[in-house]
Amino acid sequence: MVVYLDSNSRPLSSTDLSSPKSALSTVLSCPALAQSALRLVSTPPIQAGPAGLLYLHQRECAFVRRTDPAVQLLASDDATTCHLVAVRNPATGDTLLCHFDGAGATSLVFIVDERFCGSGFPDSRGESASLTQELLQAFRRSRLHFRLRTACLAPSNGARRGADNLVYPVITGLVMSVADGSLTPAKVPLPVRGPWQALRGLRFLSREDVVFEVYDPDSHCLVLRPFDYSGSQIFDAYADAPDSALAKLSTSPRQEPPHFVANLRQALRFGRANKRPARQVFHLGNIVERPLPGGLWQHGAGAAESDLKTA
User: Fold this and answer.
1) Domain locations in the chain as residue ranges
2) Rounded to two decimals, what is the model's pTM?
């Protein structure tokens, strides 16, 4: 497989991706990618609404066909050191968006040709650069051909602000149009982020080193498949811990949004009440939610969110 930096560039080599620093340097040295990144960070973020929108939480992805009757927009937010990866087949319009945190890079490789990357900023621990290297290596191992069109990463997506002159990511959220593949920086309010937010917010604790595909493009439903946690000690240790302790669970605690701690606490309390989700929540079967007009969801199969313990 071949990964091209842009339409006029040579393909990436194993040497280009030999280290996080090398991978990042290679991408940033491409003039076309630098220009596309500048255009993206210069675009004011929109406030995403619920109509026709499918939100993806950390470690989730969705594949949608251009003619999908239910989903017109794919979106994700709160990506600091995580990467938002958008992929599109220019011939068919098939589209994929993923909120990638470093787990399951090879499971991201789907049948598409054109690739976009968003988010990731120059954090002090180098988390973002490592994810960039891992992603590009995974796509390079695929049987398919990819052409990188936008890479809004590291210095391109960082801006210093505040009294301490700390670097913050310019873009943490994106909306991708299924119709034409366009990307727009976005803020996605919590009520727009769909059902089962606490459960889906615990994907990062899954035993499986994979990205979870959460949309069925044939039935046009949100499908959540059973998973269990790699360990449950974190729930007892942190569910009622001080805010300062919860903030430190992030790879970039000072750059997280204001709702980060409250959301994480809600998810941890849900996990404490349901320590074996494959049995307690999923009952060993899938949870299915059907999209309704206006961004609402109708329970289709499996457990109902309203019936479960949350604390």
Assistant:
1) 2-307
2) 0.87
